[in-house]
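Hi support team,

I'm filing this because I wasn't sure whether my run with coenzyme A finished correctly. The job status page said complete, but I'd like someone to confirm that the output block is well-formed before I use it downstream. Pasting the exact inputs I used:
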Amino acid sequence: MAYQVEYATEQDASELGIINNDSFRERGMFPAVFPGSSDASIRAYKAKNVPKHLADPKTHVLKVTDPASGAIVGYGRWHIPTELGITPHVPELSEQGQVYAKDPVVFAPQPMNMRAWTAFKAMLEEGRKRHATERDMMLDLLATLPSYQGRGVGSAILRWGCEKADALQVRIYLEATPEGCPLYVKHGWKVVENVDFDMSQFGAHGVDDFYLMIRDPKPIS
Ligand SMILES: CC(C)(COP(=O)(O)OP(=O)(O)OC[C@H]1O[C@@H](n2cnc3c(N)ncnc32)[C@H](O)[C@@H]1OP(=O)(O)O)[C@@H](O)C(=O)NCCC(=O)NCCS
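And here is everything the job wrote out:
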């Protein structure tokens, strides 16, 4: 099926929160950061994080909808440096959306393991410093509802960004989960580093693997 990729809106936040929780919940990170929290509370919190991304001029939040049901089945967040000239897409937020955008962490389910969360963010930030430049695009998030995986939803969002990167002749950096890695290789990314994030250092359990990957633009023929 040829899925259509569109910009997400504030009204989509609840559906994006569900996709975020349901696609990543098998990884160790969520139970480590939100010990004992229900799916419902993590979904609601992830929904409250959406306005912050919508309000960021370098972030392009995209969704894919199933044309049969009208439900959102996947989404992605691309970072495109504003100086590359792609018009930012920043929708006007409701008053409540503006409150969420200012500091979503205030609304996090409790207890939250802030040490694990801060260390996770620092791990991503340090990888970005080691490998990405200010001119690179970045895939900040890609997630497909589990029941829709393997049907081309993720690929449709990847094509949206890869076409832009090829036209601009810029690289794309990302941090892949082991599940995402083969798909990225198919679309032209190469692994530049493997990082094990050991949550036992932060009073939690498990190790999450990440592959730091870069895609060079296709040469213009
Ligand atoms: C990784 C992830 C985003 C991929 O999304 P997806 O929508 O399943 O991706 P696609 O369907 O485009 O591609 C997945 C596979 O299905 C295949 N596929 C694509 N279109 C297809 C179709 N119409 N019919 C059957 N298979 C298809 C692709 O070739 C690919 O095959 P591969 O596994 O051999 O590489 C998704 O699995 C996910 O959300 N995982 C959990 C969260 C996560 O790890 N996110 C990545 C963070 S970096």
